[in-house]
Amino acid sequence: MGDWLQAHKDLPLDQQLKLLESDPHFKKLPPERQNELRDRLKKFNSLTPEKRAQALQRMEFLAKLTPQQRQQLRDANQQLKVLPPERQVAVHTALRHLRQMPPAERQQVIQSDRFKTTFSDQEQKLISQLVELNPPEGGSAQSAQPK
Questions:
Q1: How many CA atoms lie within 13 A of 115 on its CB side?
Q2: Residue 37: inside a domain, yes or no?
Q3: Are residues 30 and 77 in the same domain?
Protein backbone atom coordinates (compact mmCIF):
# COMPACT_ATOMS: atom_id res chain seq x y z
CA MET A 1 0.00 0.00 0.00
CA GLY A 2 2.89 2.36 0.74
CA ASP A 3 4.16 2.48 -2.83
CA TRP A 4 0.64 2.96 -4.15
CA LEU A 5 -0.01 5.78 -1.69
CA GLN A 6 3.34 7.38 -2.45
CA ALA A 7 2.49 7.42 -6.15
CA HIS A 8 -1.02 8.83 -5.64
CA LYS A 9 -0.69 10.89 -2.44
CA ASP A 10 -1.12 14.23 -4.16
CA LEU A 11 -4.40 13.35 -5.90
CA PRO A 12 -7.76 14.27 -4.40
CA LEU A 13 -9.49 11.49 -2.47
CA ASP A 14 -12.18 10.93 -5.13
CA GLN A 15 -9.50 10.34 -7.79
CA GLN A 16 -7.55 8.06 -5.45
CA LEU A 17 -10.70 6.01 -4.83
CA LYS A 18 -11.37 5.71 -8.57
CA LEU A 19 -7.82 4.52 -9.19
CA LEU A 20 -8.06 2.07 -6.33
CA GLU A 21 -11.36 0.69 -7.61
CA SER A 22 -9.83 0.16 -11.06
CA ASP A 23 -6.71 -1.62 -9.77
CA PRO A 24 -6.80 -5.30 -10.82
CA HIS A 25 -5.27 -6.48 -7.52
CA PHE A 26 -7.87 -4.51 -5.56
CA LYS A 27 -10.71 -6.06 -7.59
CA LYS A 28 -9.53 -9.55 -6.61
CA LEU A 29 -9.75 -8.82 -2.89
CA PRO A 30 -12.75 -9.93 -0.82
CA PRO A 31 -15.37 -7.16 -0.32
CA GLU A 32 -14.54 -6.72 3.38
CA ARG A 33 -10.84 -6.19 2.57
CA GLN A 34 -11.79 -3.70 -0.17
CA ASN A 35 -13.90 -1.78 2.36
CA GLU A 36 -11.04 -1.83 4.85
CA LEU A 37 -8.65 -0.38 2.25
CA ARG A 38 -11.14 2.33 1.27
CA ASP A 39 -11.52 3.28 4.94
CA ARG A 40 -7.75 3.35 5.43
CA LEU A 41 -7.37 5.56 2.36
CA LYS A 42 -9.99 7.98 3.72
CA LYS A 43 -8.30 8.01 7.11
CA PHE A 44 -4.90 8.61 5.49
CA ASN A 45 -6.31 11.60 3.60
CA SER A 46 -7.75 13.07 6.79
CA LEU A 47 -4.27 13.26 8.36
CA THR A 48 -2.18 16.40 8.44
CA PRO A 49 0.58 16.57 5.78
CA GLU A 50 3.19 15.83 8.47
CA LYS A 51 1.31 12.76 9.71
CA ARG A 52 0.83 11.55 6.12
CA ALA A 53 4.58 11.83 5.51
CA GLN A 54 5.26 9.89 8.73
CA ALA A 55 2.78 7.19 7.71
CA LEU A 56 4.46 6.85 4.29
CA GLN A 57 7.89 6.59 5.93
CA ARG A 58 6.58 3.91 8.28
CA MET A 59 5.08 1.94 5.37
CA GLU A 60 8.33 2.17 3.43
CA PHE A 61 10.29 1.00 6.49
CA LEU A 62 7.96 -1.98 7.00
CA ALA A 63 8.11 -2.95 3.34
CA LYS A 64 11.89 -3.22 3.56
CA LEU A 65 11.93 -5.56 6.56
CA THR A 66 12.47 -9.27 6.11
CA PRO A 67 9.58 -11.56 7.14
CA GLN A 68 11.53 -12.50 10.29
CA GLN A 69 12.03 -8.83 11.18
CA ARG A 70 8.33 -8.13 10.65
CA GLN A 71 7.48 -10.99 13.02
CA GLN A 72 9.98 -9.66 15.55
CA LEU A 73 8.33 -6.23 15.28
CA ARG A 74 4.84 -7.73 15.74
CA ASP A 75 6.02 -9.65 18.81
CA ALA A 76 7.64 -6.55 20.29
CA ASN A 77 4.49 -4.50 19.69
CA GLN A 78 2.44 -7.12 21.54
CA GLN A 79 4.84 -6.84 24.49
CA LEU A 80 4.65 -3.05 24.33
CA LYS A 81 0.84 -3.07 24.47
CA VAL A 82 0.83 -4.76 27.87
CA LEU A 83 2.98 -2.05 29.43
CA PRO A 84 1.25 0.80 31.26
CA PRO A 85 0.73 3.86 28.99
CA GLU A 86 3.43 5.93 30.71
CA ARG A 87 5.96 3.12 30.24
CA GLN A 88 4.99 2.81 26.58
CA VAL A 89 5.77 6.50 26.17
CA ALA A 90 9.10 6.09 27.99
CA VAL A 91 10.07 3.14 25.74
CA HIS A 92 9.09 5.01 22.57
CA THR A 93 11.02 8.08 23.69
CA ALA A 94 14.12 6.01 24.45
CA LEU A 95 13.87 4.31 21.05
CA ARG A 96 13.63 7.62 19.24
CA HIS A 97 16.72 8.97 21.03
CA LEU A 98 18.74 5.78 20.68
CA ARG A 99 18.03 5.47 16.95
CA GLN A 100 19.60 8.89 16.42
CA MET A 101 22.88 7.79 18.00
CA PRO A 102 25.83 6.06 16.36
CA PRO A 103 25.92 2.33 17.27
CA ALA A 104 28.84 2.65 19.72
CA GLU A 105 27.20 5.48 21.66
CA ARG A 106 23.88 3.61 21.62
CA GLN A 107 25.56 0.56 23.20
CA GLN A 108 27.13 2.74 25.91
CA VAL A 109 23.71 4.15 26.82
CA ILE A 110 22.06 0.70 26.85
CA GLN A 111 24.80 -0.63 29.13
CA SER A 112 24.73 2.38 31.47
CA ASP A 113 23.51 2.20 35.05
CA ARG A 114 21.04 5.00 34.36
CA PHE A 115 19.41 3.01 31.55
CA LYS A 116 19.28 -0.11 33.71
CA THR A 117 17.64 1.73 36.61
CA THR A 118 15.21 3.60 34.36
CA PHE A 119 13.89 0.55 32.51
CA SER A 120 12.77 -2.87 33.73
CA ASP A 121 14.47 -6.00 32.37
CA GLN A 122 11.53 -6.54 30.00
CA GLU A 123 11.69 -2.92 28.78
CA GLN A 124 15.46 -3.10 28.31
CA LYS A 125 15.14 -6.25 26.20
CA LEU A 126 12.35 -4.69 24.16
CA ILE A 127 14.29 -1.48 23.53
CA SER A 128 17.43 -3.41 22.60
CA GLN A 129 15.51 -5.53 20.09
CA LEU A 130 13.65 -2.65 18.50
CA VAL A 131 16.57 -0.23 18.28
CA GLU A 132 18.53 -2.78 16.25
CA LEU A 133 15.63 -3.51 13.90
CA ASN A 134 16.64 -2.09 10.53
CA PRO A 135 15.84 -3.15 6.98
CA PRO A 136 18.62 -5.11 5.26
CA GLU A 137 20.98 -2.98 3.18
CA GLY A 138 19.60 -2.49 -0.30
CA GLY A 139 16.15 -3.58 0.84
CA SER A 140 13.35 -2.29 -1.32
CA ALA A 141 9.61 -2.06 -1.22
CA GLN A 142 8.22 -5.40 -2.30
CA SER A 143 5.46 -4.41 -4.69
CA ALA A 144 3.44 -1.46 -5.84
CA GLN A 145 0.09 -3.17 -5.34
CA PRO A 146 -2.24 -2.26 -2.48
CA LYS A 147 -1.99 -4.74 0.38
A1: 21
A2: yes
A3: no
Decide: residue 137, CB within 10 A, 0-12 exposed, 13-18 middle, 19+ buried.
exposed
DSSP state of 138: T
Q: Are residues 73 and 123 in the same domain?
A: yes
pLDDT digits (tens, 9 = 90+) for 12-50: 999 999 999 999 999 999 999 999 999 999 999 999 999
CA angle 102, 112, 84 (to 5 degrees): 95
Residues 71 and 60 grouped into a single domain: no
Domain count for the chain: 2
For the entire predicted model, the pTM comes to: 0.63
Distance CA 92, CA 99 (A): 11
Domain of residue 53 covers 2-64
Q: Cα–Cα distance between 58 and 96 in angstroms, integer?
A: 14
Q: Residue 9 domain-assigned?
A: yes
- Whether residue 53 lies inside any domain: the answer is yes
pLDDT, tens digit, for every residue of 96-105? 999 889 999 9
Cα gap 69→46, rounded to integer Å: 30
What is the separation, in whole angstroms, between the first and last Cα of the chain? 5
Nearest CA to 98 out of 124, 76, 131 is that of 131
